[in-house]
Amino acid sequence: MKDKKFKNVFKEGAISSNFIENSIYKHQTKTNIGAHNIFLGQVRADIIDGKTVSAIEYTAYEDMANQKFHEIRESAFKKFNLTCMHTYHSLGTVKAGEICLFVFVSSPRRKVVFEALEYIVEAIKANVPVFGKEIFEDESHQWKKNK
Amino acid sequence: MLITIKYFGQIAEVTQKEEEQLEVNKNSVSGLLNTLYSKYSDLKNKDFQIAQNQELVDLDAELTGAEIALLPPFAGG
């Protein structure tokens, strides 16, 4: 068993715009930063076989997921000149239109944050064991799969 | 050896449980998988990867006794 504990990236439910606003505000004291870049993943109301997705219920293999988030973070700091990086992912039910993933990167210069953010989001989608149950309006469901 | 096995998402729907401990007399991940296939035949129709001690492993990997997890396709973000 691994007993090393990594920072917990997960938050119960949707990520509120208030939380995001507050995260931006907290960086005003870090005046060596010249550029922020933010990715917000939003639950899409996909229509599949005539049924509309009303929410996604997220679960995760949390220990492994937090370890993977940590590895992605380490690798992003190695590859890019980042000042800081914050990641949050929802667990539980997130309704269509609500935010389920918040990635926030900062650097002295803009080019770095454009590249870094894409790298990080793609790595999260590919490598982190998070599972999504797409709930339809009639309460039936199917399992989401990242493309 | 006694191994803890975790199931997630649509895999947990098949097994009807999220976790169990099994006494396993196999040496490889594929041996364990065959045991699970005979216990839960619907698993054969499912797409999943296997993690041992929170790292993805191949079918020929040796069982170490650490936690095993059956992970369906990832859907984060």
Summarize the structure.
The complex is a heterodimer of chains A (147) and B (77). Chain A is an alpha+beta fold. Chain A has helices at residues 17-25, 62-79, 110-127, and strands at 10-12, 35-42, 47-48, 51-60, 84-95, 99-107, 130-136, 141-143.
Number of domains of chain A: 1
Shape of chain A: globular
Helices and strands of chain A: which structural class? Answer: alpha+beta
Mean pLDDT of chain A comes to 96
CATH topology of chain A: Aldehyde Oxidoreductase, domain 3
Number of strands of chain B: 5
Low-confidence stretches of chain B: none
In percent, how helical is the residue content of chain B?
A: 10-25%
**Major sheet of chain B, described briefly?**
5 strands, mixed
- According to CATH, the homologous superfamily of chain B is Beta-grasp domain
What is the strand content of chain A?
Answer: 35-45%
If helices are DSSP runs of H or I spanning 4 or more residues, what is the number of helices of chain B?
2
Structure description:
The complex is a heterodimer of chains A (147) and B (77). The model of chain A has no long low-confidence stretch (mean pLDDT 96). Chain A has helices spanning 17-25, 62-79, 110-127; strands at 10-12, 35-42, 47-48, 51-60, 84-95, 99-107, 130-136, 141-143. Chain A starts with 9 loop residues before the first strand and ends with a strand. In chain A, strands 1, 2, 3, 4, 5, 6, 7 and 8 form an eight-stranded mixed beta sheet that branches. In chain A, a hairpin with a 4-residue loop joins strand 7 (130-136) and strand 8. Chain A contains three helices and eight strands; from the N terminus they run E-H-E-E-E-H-E-E-H-E-E. Chain A has a single domain (10-143), classed as Alpha-Beta Complex (Aldehyde Oxidoreductase, domain 3). The longest helix of chain A is centred in the middle third of the chain and has 18 residues, at 62-79. Helices cover 31% and strands 37% of the residues of chain A. By secondary structure, chain B is of the alpha+beta class. Chain B has one domain (2-60, 67-71): Beta-grasp domain (Ubiquitin-like (UB roll)), CATH 3.10.20.30. Chain B has helices at residues 9-15, 29-39, and strands spanning 2-7, 19-23, 49-52, 55-57, 68-71. The longest helix of chain B has 11 residues, at 29-39. Chain B is globular, with a radius of gyration of 12 Å. Chain B starts with a strand and ends in a 6-residue tail after the last strand. The model of chain B has no long low-confidence stretch (mean pLDDT 96). The chains are: A alpha+beta (147), B alpha+beta (77). Chain A binds chain B through residues 1-2, 41, 56, 58-61, 63-65, 67, 89, 100-101, 121, 124-133, 143-146, and chain B through 6, 8-10, 51, 53-55, 66-67, 69, 71-77. Chain B: Pfam families: ThiS. Chain B: It comes from Wocania arenilitoris. Chain B: This is MoaD/ThiS family protein. Chain B: InterPro entries: Beta-grasp_dom_sf (IPR012675), Mopterin_synth/thiamin_S_b (IPR016155), ThiS/MoaD-like (IPR003749).
